[in-house]
Amino acid sequence: MDLEEYLEYVKTGKKIIGGSREHEFMHGALQDALRITHKINSEFHTPDEIQQLFAELTNTEINETLGLIPPFNTDFGKNIHVGKNVFINSGCKMQDQGGIFIGDDVLIGHNACLLTLNHEFDPAHRQDMNPSAIHIGSNAWLGSNVTVLPGVTIGENSIVAAGAVVTKDVPNNTIVAGVPAKIIRKISDE
């Protein structure tokens, strides 16, 4: 299995069976992600060097507008898609096997955790996983210590308050907070 085959497979949302070739591919990719994130996190790098390492990690072109403050962790890396003028603060963790799609001008706070895999509930199949992508709309702001669960879409211009656990989609122009996150109010032009 190669990267393109894997990405096409998870895009369908089909289950990743423990021990399957998709599962084995994920574990192989983990080693590459660990190697690159260790480079990012183990010593000082200029912003240009961070962008180059992130491009290697994500297998994408260098995004010269990306701001990333280490440490940064991911256990895959190849299914992170970042728009322009994105800022990712220190301690961010991305479990991106199912896909993380970040729009332009997004701010991600300290220690944010973006998760795209759920294990099966049935103990006999607990090693099986269900991938589901996260989408973060342009101009969204995720506060510190936010957790976004698989399959969630954060709407454009929305704010997720610090410490929130987002289990459901957040509409555009909305502020959510709490565990689980609930709508606090709409964002207006006032």
Number of strands: 18
End-to-end Cα distance: 52 Å
Instruction: List low-confidence stretches.
Output: none
Shape: globular
Strand order of the largest sheet: 1-4-7-12-15-17-18
Q: Beta fraction of the residues?
A: 25-35%
Helix content: 10-25%
Number of helices: 3
Supply the helix-strand structural class.
alpha/beta
Oligomer designation: single chain
User: What is the H-and-E element order?
Assistant: HHHEEEEEEEEEEEEEEEEEE
Q: Largest sheet, if any? A: 7 strands, mixed
- Mean pLDDT, as a whole number? 96
What's the alpha carbon Rg, rounded to whole Å?
A: 16 Å
Question: What would the keywords be for this entry?
Answer:
5-stranded parallel β-sheet, alpha/beta, 7-stranded mixed β-sheet
Q: What features would you describe in this structure?
A:
There is one protein chain. With 190 residues, this protein is α/β, with parallel strands linked by helices. Helices cover 23% and strands 26% of the residues. The protein contains three helices and 18 strands. The chain has helices at residues 3-11, 21-42, 47-58, and strands at 67-68, 72-74, 80-82, 87-88, 92-95, 100-102, 107-108, 113-115, 117-119, 129-131, 134-136, 141-142, 147-148, 153-154, 159-160, 165-166, 174-177, 182-186. It has a seven-stranded mixed beta sheet with strand order 1-4-7-12-15-17-18. It has a five-stranded parallel beta sheet with strand order 2-5-8-13-16. It has a four-stranded parallel beta sheet with strand order 3-6-11-14, with no helix packed on it. A hairpin with a 4-residue loop joins strand 17 (174-177) and strand 18. Helix 2 runs antiparallel to helix 3 (47-58). The protein is globular and about 50 Å long.
